[in-house]
Amino acid sequence: MDSTLHDAAISLRDVSVQYRVPTEQIGTLKEHAIRLLQGRRVEYRAFWALKGLDLDVRRGESLGIIGRNGAGKSTLLKVIARVLRPTRGRVRVRGNVAPLIELGAGFHGELTGRENVYLNGAMLGFSQAQMKERFDRIVEFAELGSFIDAALRSYSSGMVMRLGFAVATEVNPDILITDEVLAVGDESFQEKCLARMAEFRAKGTTILFVSHGLSAVRAICDRAVWIEQGQLKRIGVVEDVIDAYRTHLAHPALAPLDQPAG
Amino acid sequence: MSAAPGARRSTEPPIYDSGALRVPFVHEFSELIRYRFLLRNLVLRDLNVRYKRSVLGFFWAMVNPLLTMLVLLVVFTQLFRFQIEHYSIYILAGLLLWNLFYRGTSLAMVTLIQNAGIRGKIYVPASVFVAASIGSAFVNLLFALGPLLVLALATGVRPNWTWLYLPVPILQTTLLTFGMGLLVAALAVFFADMLDIYEVLLGAFFYLTPIIYPVSILPEQLLKLERFNLVFAFIDGFRSPLLEGRIPDLGSVLLATLAALAVTVVGWTLFTRLLDQFAYRA
Known about the structure:
The structure holds two protein chains of two kinds. Chain A is built from eight helices and nine strands. Chain A is of the alpha/beta class. A six-stranded mixed β-sheet of chain A has the order 5-6-7-3-8-9, with helices on both faces. In chain A, β8 and β9 form a beta hairpin. The relative contact order of chain A is 0.17. The relative contact order of chain B is 0.14. Chain B starts with 14 loop residues before the first strand and ends with a helix.
C-alpha cells in the first residue's frame, strides 16, 4: 500500500483497458451458432483504449482532461466512475462520485420532473429522504417553478439540462465528473453553472473536467492532463499542457490535422 | 446520516478500489441491498409509466386484467370445452402465474439492455434492473389477484381455507422468475437476438405447459416430462388449493422450491461472473 491515496482523491496505477472487437460483425447468437457449425472461430482484434496510465488527482483539485476524439478520455472517466473495471492495473477512488456526463442521463420523459429527481437521486445512491432534503434547492436552482410537476417530455432541452445539473451538483459529491456540460444552455445559465463550479472548487470538491473548449478548461482547472492514444502525453500546469497540445495539433508531421478544438 | 440541509455527510467517504479482493457473488448482493431505494424507484417508475397516462390511472391496473380475463373467458370457454370444473378460473389462474414468469423474464432482458446507456455513465449494480423487472411483474400480479378471486367467487367457486396457501406458489414462481431473468438478461447483453429466440422458445413452452388445457390430455411421454416443468408445478400448486381445496404435499413443495432456488443460484452466479464484461459490450 503506497501512501499516495492518503491525500489523493483518485489514484490510477498502470491502468489499461482493452476492448475486444470482433473482426467480423457478429452480434447474434444465430451468427455464433452458424460459425460454430462451420467450425470457424470468431476472431477478435484487441484494442487498447488505455495503456498503462498512471494518474493521481489530489483532493480538492480540478483537473482538466484534454485530447482528441478517441484518445481515451471517456474511457478514463468510465474507469474512475467505476462503470468500467480496468483490464489491468488498479483504480482507487476516495469519496462519492457524481457524473455530469451527458446531462439528464437516466431521465424518463413520461415521468414528471419531481419523479425524475428522485429516480436520478436513487441512481446516484441517495435515499428518498436524502433527496427530499435537497428537493427545494434543486427546483430553485433549475428555475423550473411549477413545471416540476409536468411530464419531462414537455420540457425544453434547456430545462432538462438545468434539472440534470441541479441534481448532480445538489447531491454534494466529493468528486464531480463533468463532460462538456457548459457547451450547451443559454448564457445566463452557463454563468450560473460556472459560478457553481467555482463554489465547488472553493469548498474542496475534486473536479474532473473533460472539454474540447480549452478556454473553459483554463477557467475551471488547476491542472490539465493530455491523453493521446490511451496514454498520458503530458500533465501539469494548464497553460503548458494546452500549449503543448495545440502545438501538437498544429504540427502536421506529428499528427494528422484534426479539427483543432477551442 | 446528517439531516441538516447542506451538511456534508458525516460518515467516512466510501473508497472504491478496483484491486480490492471481492467475491462477485456476495459483493453484488450487498450492492443490491445498498441500492434498494433505486430498486423501489424503478418499480414505481415502471408502474407509473404504464398506468399514469390512462384516464383511469391506477384503477386501470385492476380493470385491465379483469377485462383481459373476461375476453379470455369468452374465447376459451367457447372454443375449447374441456371437462374441467370452473374451466374459466382454471385458465385465468394459470395465466396469472404464467404472466408473472413471462413478463418478468422478458422485462428483465429489455430493461437491462435499455439501461446500457445509464450503466455506462453512472455506477449502479446491474442486478437492480433485473430485480426491478421481477418486482414490477410481481406487483402487476398482485393487481390482478383481487379481480381473479372476485371472479372465482362470482362463478361459483367456493372459498376454502386452502386459499391461504396461495401466496406460496406465487413466491415460488417469483423466485424462479428472478433466477431465469438473471440468466436470460445476462445472455441478452452478449447476443442481440437473444430476446427474439427467447420469445419463440417461450411460445413453445407455453403450449407444452398445461395452462389452457387439462394435464389429462397429455400423452404418456409428455406427462413424464411435465414432472420437471417447474412452471407447471407452481401453476398446479396454485390451482388445486384455489379450485379443489387441495394443497400439494410438503415434500414436493420443498423439492420444487429447492429447484427454483437452484435456478436462481445458477442465474446469480452467471450474472455476477459476467458483470464486469457488461460495460465492455456497449
